[in-house]
C-alpha cells in the first residue's frame, strides 16, 4: 500500500531537486544599489555594471524604484548605495546624516511630450514653465508620475515656478514608473514630462511626440551617494565606495559618455572636471 | 475451566448524559466465544471499543494474571492483544495483500518471515488468488474475509467482531462462521455482537444481553 | 491586432530558442515556490490533523481564522513582511530583505492557510474507521496519521496543488521583499510587471504564456485527480 515510489515519483523528485539547488548558490557579499526607474529604463546600468563586476570581482544587486523610495531604502539601511536625480532631496539626505560622499555622476535632460496635434500649442516654445502654463490654461490632460521620484519632484518644482496648482479635472497622478506613466499618457492622449532616456526607449511604441526640450530648467543631474555606515555597521560600505570610485573614475566616466541609446548619446558625465 | 485472558470490572460509560454502561463485568477465556445481543444503540459497540482500547471509559478495572489495575495501565497490552473489527468490514484503499499485511510492519518479524506469514494467512482464508485485487472491487463477503485475515495474521489473543455477518447471503455467512470456528480452535477468545443470535448456535459458548447498561445472561 | 500577433510570435521565439535570461527567471519562480510549498506542507497538514482530531475548544476559531486568510491580498502580506525584515525592524539583523529567502518566507505565509484549510477538509472526509482500524491493528499514532493521509491522498494533493498555484502566481510579496533584482530575485511575475512597465510586451507575454500553461497544467492535473478520487471511493 505504501509503495508509491514508482519511476514517475522519482522523476518528479529529481526535477524538484534541480530547481531548488539551481538557484541556491552562495555568493560573496553583494553591493546593493538602489536607483531610479529612469536609469534602469535607459539600459545604462545593464551595460556599465558588468564591467565593474568583472574588474573588481564584486556582485551588484540593482533595485530600481522611484527616487523617493531609493532614498528611503538608504535611510533604512536596506541598501548600500543610492543613485538618484533629485538634488534638493539628496542634500537633505546627506545633511540628515543618512548618506556620505555624494558625488555628481552625470546628467541628461527632461523633455515634455504630448499628443501629436498639440492642442496646447507648446511645440517649438522650448520653455518649460511657459509650456506648463499653456497646458494648464487650456485644461489639457497631463499625466504626473505622482510617486515622489526625481522626475516627479522636478515636475512639482516647475509647477511652482509656473505659479499654478494643477486641477484634478485635467491632472492625472498615476503613482507609477516612467514607462507606465508614458503608456498611460499615450492611452489618454495626454502631456507629460519624461527623462530623455526612457523617452528614447519607448517612443517607437507610443503615438506621443516630443514637443519641448533644451530649457535649462529641464536639466537632470544624477548623483551617487554611499549610505552612512555609522548608522548601520553591517552596510557594505567598502563595496559602495568601490562602486562610486569606479563610476567616477576615468574609465567609468568614459563608458558613461560613450553609452548610446538608439545611436544617440544620452548621459553627459560630470564627475571629473576638465 | 482455564484461566481467563482478561477480566474487565466495573466498566462505566456515559454518553450525552445517558449512562450507557453501568458497572459491566466481562471475562474473556481462550478458545471460548461470547455472543453479545442487545437492541440497537444499547451500547454493544461502545463496550467492544472500550475493551479494544479505542474508546475511554469513565471507570474500568482490568485484571491480568491476577493483578488488578486501573484501565489506563494496561492500555498498551490491550491494544496489542485485542483487535476490533467494525460492523461493515472496513478495508484500506489498496490490494487485498496490502490490507492483510498492514499490521505486520509493527511486529518484530523479519522480511522473510512477513512474506511467509502473508502467504500462510492468504491460504488460510482462501484469498491467494485474489491477493492483488483492489479492496474496493470485492463483494461484501470477501471483504469480511479480508478483514478477518488482516486481524488473524497478527495472532491476537482476543478478537472482537461487531455484527460480522449482517447483510451476508447464506453462503458467505457459512464461510465466515467457518473461519470464526477456526479462530476459536486456535485458542483465540472471540466476542461477537449480533441481533440474530440463531446464526451462531454452534459457535457461541455463552450469550449475554446488554440492556439498560447491564449484562445479563 | 497585428501588433499583438507579432508580439506573441516574438514571445514564442524567446521561449523556444532558450533565451537564457527568460529561463533563469522561470527557474527562479519554481525554485522559490517549490521551497515554500515543501517547507509548509508537513507542518500545515499536521496542524490540520490536530485541528480535526484535537477536539479542543479553540479549534473551530482557529480554522475560521485560516479560512479568512485564504484570500488575503499578497501585497498586504508583502508589506507586513517588509516591515518585519527591514533593517530597523524586529528581524532586520537577519539581513533577509531583498533575498530569495525573504520571498520563500513570504510565500510560506501565503500558502499555509490554504494547506491548513483544504487539508482539513480532506482529512475531515476520511472515514472515521481508518484511525480506529489502524490503531487496533497496532499502528502507533504517527503511522495512523500517515494512513489517514494516504486514504485522503487525492484531497491532500489537491490542497498542495492549490497552494502551489497561489504562490507561483503571486507578485505582491515577491516585489516588496524580493526587490525584483535581476538574476537574483526576479521571478516570472515581477519580471512581467517590470517588462510591461518598460513596454517590452514580448518578454511579458512570453513569461505570461509560461505562467498560463502552468496554470492550465495544474488545473488539468487537479481534475484528473478528482476523477481518480471518484473511482476509488
Overview of this protein structure:
The complex is a heterotrimer of chains A (274), B (217) and C (233). Chain A folds into two domains: 31-108 and 219-269, Periplasmic binding protein-like II (D-Maltodextrin-Binding Protein, domain 2, 3-Layer(aba) Sandwich), CATH 3.40.190.10; 113-217, 3-Layer(aba) Sandwich (D-Maltodextrin-Binding Protein, domain 2). Chain A has eleven helices and twelve strands. Chain A has helices at 7-22, 37-42, 44-56, 67-75, 87-95, 128-137, 150-161, 178-188, 196-202, 237-247, 250-258, and strands at 31-36, 60-65, 81-84, 99-114, 142-144, 171-173, 191-195, 209-212, 219-227, 260-261, 264-265, 268-269. In chain A, helix 7 links the parallel strand 5 and strand 6. Chain A starts with 6 loop residues before the first helix and ends in a 5-residue tail after the last strand. By secondary structure, chain B is of the alpha/beta class. Chain B has one domain: P-loop containing nucleotide triphosphate hydrolases (Rossmann fold). Chain B has a six-stranded mixed sheet, sandwiched between helices. In chain B, a hairpin with a 2-residue loop joins strand 4 (59-64) and strand 5. In chain B, helix 5 (140-152) packs parallel to helix 6 (170-185). The two termini of chain B are 18 Å apart.
What keyword list fits this structure?
heterotrimer, B: 217 residues, alpha/beta, Rossmann fold, four-stranded antiparallel beta sheet, 10 strands, globular, C: 233 residues, mainly alpha, 78% helix
Q: Summed up, what is this model?
A:
The complex is a heterotrimer of chains A (274), B (217) and C (233). Chain A has 274 residues and is α/β, with parallel strands linked by helices.
Tell me, briefly, the overall form of chain A: globular
CATH topology name of the largest domain in chain A:
D-Maltodextrin-Binding Protein, domain 2
Reported for the largest beta sheet of chain A, the result is:
10 strands, mixed
What's the CATH class of the largest domain in chain A, please?
Alpha Beta
Structural class by helix and strand composition of chain B: alpha/beta
